[in-house]
């Protein structure tokens, strides 16, 4: 298929609509993070028990990334995207009628497992687009993914406060159903050649991890960045609830708006991934995140500083994510779903580890512990990058050597 024809498959208006879909799909995973207190009261259980809901949603999502997203290399991604939206809507509504917390947890797992539309859309669009536009389009779609995390928290918090947690789920499910109906008419067929066997696809994932150095590196960079991101965000509510702020939960949720601004500011990173220096920009993003932790240490007790820290950290984190996925989009299109699956599984494993580290670091070292943990996690990929540069310079090259630059 010629590049001009490919560009017509996803006009700009459809790209923006899919960006919105990505945002809502990811938001499904975060509504309940700020609604756990209301859910606990609704089922008359302790808050610690209701906290299991967010855990099982994340576990379900990670397994969905591992087992559902690779299906895009076997079947038409258009059908998979629509199925994901419909199933997510079903589980959102089902959660509102569950009579017990145990059944709610089962439905929550189903929600997480099926909510992979965004990670199906990104390889669907990028593998059917002209190569010169992939980075910019990927960056646009990832803006929706990043906004989804923050919009889920902010919208979930305020709608839940004005109404209740069930209303949040019903509204989200209804919107997904409307979008699925519209996309059924507008989405093109997936023109990428497919693999013949899902089992072979799954078996190929480990060899693919071994054979693609860019994949291994982006997983490392992404996991470290998301871990450090959660080292800050998970204890942030403790900081805002305590001295000297003493903010309530409503203000805590609204704090996510600062992260939205950081996400929008990082939108230019998609274009950087189309150049020959994407790897260097990736490290620059990690250094930006390190600077945010240094800034945290300089004056976390001042609200203006804390706002600046949140903004800078989000800019670096979103740049890192966009550059990682932009680099992956330039690899073999036939492997895009598997590449994206492996990357996102590693990314969320890193984030889960960072959530645990952030809680422990704050418990034992307060803000100083957070700073130490965040800087340590981020320094690992930076050191790796510097060592790899030094080793590369030591290897003599001749006319028959080829260096892969991504």
What's the gist of this structure?
With 406 residues, the chain is an all-alpha fold. The protein is 78% helix and 0% strand.
Determine the mean pLDDT.
82
What distance separates the N and C termini?
Answer: 24 Å
Q: What's the order of the H and E elements? A: HHHHHHHHHHHHHHHHHH
Give the biggest sheet.
none
Q: Which range best describes the helical content: under 10%, 10-25%, 25-40%, 40-55%, 55-70% or over 70%?
A: over 70%
Give the tags.
406 residues; mainly alpha; 0% strand
Write the layout of secondary structure elements.
Blueprint: H1 3-9, H2 12-27, H3 36-43, H4 47-67, H5 77-95, H6 101-114, H7 117-127, H8 134-162, H9 165-186, H10 198-203, H11 205-211, H12 213-241, H13 249-254, H14 256-265, H15 269-272, H16 278-299, H17 303-328, H18 336-394
Helix pairs in contact: 2-7, 2-8, 2-9, 3-4, 4-6, 4-18, 5-6, 5-7, 5-9, 7-8, 7-18, 8-9, 8-14, 8-17, 12-16, 12-17, 12-18, 14-17, 16-17, 16-18
């Amino acid at each position: 298929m010629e590049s001009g024809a490919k560009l017509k498959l996803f006009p700009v208006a459809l790209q923006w609509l899919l960006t919105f879909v990505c945002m809502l799909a990811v938001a499904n995973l975060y509504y309940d993070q700020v609604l756990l207190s209301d859910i606990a009261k609704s089922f008359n259980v302790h808050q610690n028990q209701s906290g299991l809901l967010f855990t099982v949603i994340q576990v379900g999502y990670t397994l969905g990334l591992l087992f559902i997203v690779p299906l895009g290399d076997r079947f038409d991604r258009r059908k998979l995207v629509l199925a994901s939206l419909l199933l997510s809507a079903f589980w959102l509504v089902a959660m509102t009628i569950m009579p017990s917390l145990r059944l709610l947890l089962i439905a929550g797992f189903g929600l997480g497992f099926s909510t992979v539309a965004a990670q199906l859309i990104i390889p669907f669009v990028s593998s059917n687009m002209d190569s010169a536009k992939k980075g910019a389009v990927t960056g646009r779609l990832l803006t929706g993914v990043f906004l989804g995390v923050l919009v889920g928290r902010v919208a979930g918090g305020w709608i839940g406060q004005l109404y209740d947690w069930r209303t949040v789920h019903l509204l989200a499910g209804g919107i997904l159903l409307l979008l699925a109906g519209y996309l059924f008419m507008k989405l093109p067929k997936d023109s990428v050649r497919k693999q013949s066997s899902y089992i072979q696809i799954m078996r190929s994932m480990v060899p693919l991890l071994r054979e693609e150095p860019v994949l291994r590196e982006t997983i490392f960079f992404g996991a470290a960045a998301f871990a450090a991101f959660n080292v800050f965000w998970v204890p942030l509510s403790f900081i805002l609830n305590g001295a000297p702020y003493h903010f309530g939960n409503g203000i805590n949720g609204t704090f996510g708006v600062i992260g939205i601004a950081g996400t929008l500011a990082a939108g230019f990173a998609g274009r950087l991934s189309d150049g020959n220096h994407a790897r260097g920009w990736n490290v620059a993003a990690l250094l930006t995140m390190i600077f945010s932790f240094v800034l945290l240490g300089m004056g976390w007790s001042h609200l203006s500083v804390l706002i600046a820290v949140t903004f800078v950290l989000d800019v670096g984190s979103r740049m890192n994510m966009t550059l990682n996925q932009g680099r992956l989009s330039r690899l073999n299109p036939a492997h895009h779903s598997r590449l994206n699956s492996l990357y996102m599984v590693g990314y969320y494993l890193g984030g889960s580890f960072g959530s645990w580290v952030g809680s422990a670091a704050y418990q034992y070292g307060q803000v100083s512990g957070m700073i130490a943990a965040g800087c340590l996690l981020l320094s690992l990929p930076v050191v790796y990058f510097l060592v790899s540069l030094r080793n590369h310079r030591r290897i003599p090259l001749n006319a028959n050597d080829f260096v892969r630059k991504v």
